[in-house]
Amino acid sequence: MGNRVWSDKKRFIWILSVLLITAFIFTSGISYKVAHDSLSEQISENTLPLTSDNIYSEIQQDLLQPIFISSLMAQDTFVRDWTINDEQDPKLLIRYLKEIQNKYDTVTSFFISDKSRNYYHSTGVLKKVEETDPIDAWYFRVRSLPDSEPYEVNIDPDTANKNQTVVYVNYKVYDFDGNFIGVTGVGLAVERVQKLIKLYQKRYNRRVYFVDTEGVVTLHGDQYTGSQTLQDSPGLEKLATRILTSPSASLSYVRDNKTVYLNSRMVSEFKWYLMVEQEEAEGEQKILNTFWVNIGLGLLVIIIILVIANLTLGRYQRKLEVMASTDKLTGATNRQMFEINFTQSLLNADNSAVPVSIILLDIDYFKKVNDSFGHSIGDLVIKTVANMIQHQLRDQDIVCRWGGEEFLLLLPNVDLSHAADMAERIRETIAQRKISVNEHEIGITVSSGVAQYNPGEPSADLINRVDVALYQAKDRGRDQVVLSH
Question: Per the UniProt record, which residue ranges are transmembrane (predicted)?
Answer without folding.
Answer: 12-32, 291-313
